[in-house]
């Protein structure tokens, strides 16, 4: 049996509308409760149904109501989530969080503004760390965003397809980099890279995917020896016109990455 607290924001809204429609059809409160239990395996009390029908209860009093309809900002957040960001549940406080830790202040500013745009109130902090570079943190508390991002990635892809430039910018801001001859992005998730490749293709950006590190390959990270748990993939953009189209249509939010991209274009123009 599913508890109301386990439902997403949109699922609760849909359920409220369904409850009210049943009431208009002259179902009793008890009948509505039983019908929802049988049809949807959702446990909802008679008293809650009464409050909903009389508009005397707002189920979002303790939940930030945010705009999860497709938008450039939400698409960007999804791209960031597939890269540097993570979501987690803090059991001590019973709160759900979206968080990202990065070295670039301009990056966290864009993430912060995107979170604000969809209705959240994120916080930014600067944390000094002994074992790695000091990093900026941006964090926002939202059960609705947590549940939204916890969906199958195919559902998130639907939003990304509506705003591909913003999704790709978020993903490349997180995982992308520029070398002397290419733009590249690395990730364990081959399906995610293939999806990104298709989006790039629609923007007239040719890219290729290959294995960057095979499973079991040894790596030294800050003095610690690690082994790749799975094949690690790289998506690369080499062709001059594709690099140029990427710069025009996607680019980076991060200044240092934009500067490297500009240098790559200048180098390509000389040859």
Feature tags:
271 residues, alpha+beta, Endonuclease I-creI, 3 domains, four-stranded antiparallel sheet, 11 helices, Homing_endonucl, Intein_endonuc_central, LAGLIDADG_dom
Give a quick precis of the structure.
This protein is α+β, with helices and mostly antiparallel strands and 271 residues long. The chain has helices at 9-24, 29-40, 46-53, 72-81, 105-117, 143-149, 153-162, 164-175, 190-202, 240-249, 255-269; strands spanning 2-3, 42-43, 86-90, 95-102, 123-127, 135-141, 176-178, 183-187, 208-213, 218-221, 224-227, 232-237.
Return residue spans where pLDDT drops below 50 for at least 5 consecutive residues: none
Summarize the helix and strand pattern as letters: EHHEHHEEHEEHHHEEHEEEEHH
Termini separation = 65 Å
Radius of gyration: 23 Å
CATH architecture of the largest domain: Roll
And the CATH topology of the largest domain? Endonuclease I-creI
Pfam family, one: LAGLIDADG_3
GO molecular function, one term: endonuclease activity
InterPro entries: Homing_endonucl, Intein_endonuc_central, LAGLIDADG_dom
Describe this structure in words.
The protein is an alpha+beta fold and 271 residues long. The protein folds into three domains: 2-53; 72-152, Roll (Endonuclease I-creI); 163-269, Homing endonucleases (Endonuclease I-creI). The protein is built from eleven helices and twelve strands. A four-stranded antiparallel β-sheet has the order 3-4-6-5, covered by helices on one side. Strands 7-8-12-9 form a four-stranded antiparallel β-sheet. It has a two-stranded parallel ribbon with strand order 1-2. The longest helix is centred in the N-terminal third of the chain and has 16 residues, at 9-24. It is elongated and about 75 Å long. The N and C termini lie far apart (65 Å).
């Amino acid at each position: 049996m599913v508890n109301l607290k386990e439902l997403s924001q949109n699922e609760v809204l849909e359920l409220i509308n369904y409850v009210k429609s049943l009431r208009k059809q002259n179902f009793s409160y008890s009948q509505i409760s039983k019908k929802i239990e049988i049809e949807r395996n959702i446990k909802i009390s008679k008293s809650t149904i009464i409050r909903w029908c009389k508009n005397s209860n707002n189920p979002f009093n303790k939940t930030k109501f945010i705009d999860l309809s497709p938008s450039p900002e939400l698409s960007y957040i999804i791209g960031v989530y597939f890269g540097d960001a993570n979501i987690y549940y803090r059991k001590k406080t019973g709160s759900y969080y979206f968080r990202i830790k990065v070295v670039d202040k301009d990056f966290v500013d864009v993430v912060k503004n995107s979170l604000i745009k969809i209705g959240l109130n994120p916080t930014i902090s600067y944390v000094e760390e002994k074992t790695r570079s000091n990093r900026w943190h941006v964090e926002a508390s939202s059960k609705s965003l947590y549940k939204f991002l916890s969906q199958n990635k195919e559902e998130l892809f639907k939003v990304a397809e509506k705003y591909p430039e913003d999704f790709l910018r978020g993903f490349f801001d997180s995982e992308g980099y520029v070398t002397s001859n290419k733009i590249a992005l690395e990730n364990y998730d081959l399906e995610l890279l293939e999806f990104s490749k298709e989006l790039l293709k629609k923007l007239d950006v040719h890219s290729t995917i290959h294995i960057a590190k095979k499973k079991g390959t040894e790596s030294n990270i800050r003095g610690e020896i690690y082994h790749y748990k799975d094949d690690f993939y790289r998506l690369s953009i080499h062709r001059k016109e594709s690099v140029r189209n990427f710069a025009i249509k996607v680019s980076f939010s991060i200044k240092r990455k934009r500067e490297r991209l500009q240098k790559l274009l200048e180098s390509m123009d000389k040859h």
